[in-house]
């Protein structure tokens, strides 16, 4: 993992900033609008993948999601809802995996412009909603209910750290689920920030504060978004928080969800630890997954 202090301006979030989650999310909107420049460069690749019937999801996600055509007692997956969908490649992967319809929700209008273009290029049955995930609408404009219609509600890699109110987020997840729907989460493990590689590719401890809360930053790690045409000092401040696994599980339980599985994985989902020697990989949890139902 690259030392982010070399690639980003980083500071702790102030108490005033922490008191207003939606204001921090609004800052993230501006930052992700800028980051859409990188996704634009991957657009043709995304079109080719979806047209070929492919999936951008990891094998572990395929295992968690299962056969969407056989879900719900053989009735199949009618609607898959993807929160924090970015430019839509993972969302349309759910369509290729068997969902008859997909809905993607994201805070960044520029990301959703790319998602809409991807829909036009592939003919996928997709609906895109621009919203702070905490303000996910209860209905689709002119087409009926959204609440209670998610046969699959999915949130994937690199999503949870951008949230600043887990209780409100968990409540949205639950209200979107259909009575027989499943929630699938696969994301980076908060403990991954506690470890890095030394010069010989061995695991070493960092000085990262696991319980430190939100931080503000400008710029992006090379393994993630990399450099943009906008100079780092001119980029928007954005707010991330490595919620502990306990905080995530507690929020889901507090919303009334019934957890089925909670698992930890050595999967390095963003190549942040690619400098670790191959024989030493698999010793540290770098990602986690949770599956749940509505809990009625």
Give the topology.
Blueprint (H helix, E strand, L loop, with lengths): L8 E4 L2 H4 L2 H21 L1 H9 L7 H7 L13 E5 L5 H8 L4 E6 L2 H14 L3 E5 L8 E2 L3 E2 L4 E6 L10 H11 E12 L6 E3 L5 E3 L9 E4 L19 E3 L4 H10 L3 E8 L21 E7 L3
Parallel strand pairs: 2-3, 2-7, 3-4, 7-8
Antiparallel strand pairs: 1-11, 5-6, 8-14, 9-10, 11-12, 13-14
Helix pairs in contact: 2-6, 3-6, 7-8
CATH top-level class: Alpha Beta
Cross-sheet strand order for the largest sheet = 4-3-2-7-8-14-13
Largest sheet: 7 strands, mixed
User: SS-based structural class?
Assistant: alpha/beta
Portion in strands: 15-25%
Q: Spans of 5+ residues with little confidence (pLDDT < 50)? A: 2-7
Q: What is the 3D form?
A: globular
**Termini Cα gap:** 42 Å
- What's the tally of helices? 8
Q: Please, how many domains? A: 1
Structure write-up:
With about 300 residues, the chain is an alpha/beta fold. It has one domain (about 5-295): Rossmann fold (3-Layer(aba) Sandwich), CATH 3.40.50.150. It is about 30% helix and about 25% strand. The protein has helices at about 15-20, 20-40, 45-50, 60-65, 90-95, 110-120, 165-175, 245-255; strands spanning about 10, 80-85, 100-105, 125-130, 140, 145, 150-155, 175-190, 195, 205, 215-220, 240, 260-265, 285-295.
């Amino acid at each position: 993992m690259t030392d982010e202090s070399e690639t980003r301006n980083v500071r702790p979030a102030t108490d005033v900033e922490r008191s207003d989650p939606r204001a921090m999310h609004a800052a993230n909107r501006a930052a992700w609008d800028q980051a859409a420049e990188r996704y634009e460069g991957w657009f043709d690749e995304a079109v080719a993948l979806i047209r070929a019937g492919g999936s951008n999801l990891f094998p572990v996600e395929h295992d968690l999601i299962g056969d969407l055509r056989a879900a719900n007692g053989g009735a199949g997956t009618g609607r898959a809802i993807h929160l924090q969908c970015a430019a839509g490649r993972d969302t349309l992967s759910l369509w290729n995996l068997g969902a008859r319809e997909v809905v993607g929700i994201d805070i960044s209008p520029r990301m959703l412009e790319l998602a809409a273009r991807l829909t036009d290029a592939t003919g996928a049955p997709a609906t895109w909603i621009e919203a702070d995930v905490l303000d996910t609408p209860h209905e689709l404009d002119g087409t009926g209910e959204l609440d209670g219609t998610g046969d699959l509600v999915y949130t994937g890699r690199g999503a949870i750290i951008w949230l600043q109110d887990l209780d409100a987020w968990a409540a949205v997840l639950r209200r979107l689920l259909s009575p027989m729907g499943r929630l699938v989460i696969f994301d980076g493990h908060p403990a991954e920030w506690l470890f890095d590689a030394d010069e010989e590719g061995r695991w070493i401890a960092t000085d990262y504060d696991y319980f430190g809360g939100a931080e503000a930053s400008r710029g992006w790690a090379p393994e993630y978004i990399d450099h943009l045409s906008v100079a780092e000092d001119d980029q928007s401040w954005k707010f991330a928080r490595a919620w502990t696994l306990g905080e995530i599980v507690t929020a889901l339980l507090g919303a009334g969800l019934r957890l089925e599985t909670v698992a930890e994985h050595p999967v390095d989902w963003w190549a942040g630890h690619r400098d670790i020697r191959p024989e030493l990989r698999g010793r540290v949890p770098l990602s986690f997954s949770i599956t749940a139902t509505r809990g009625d």
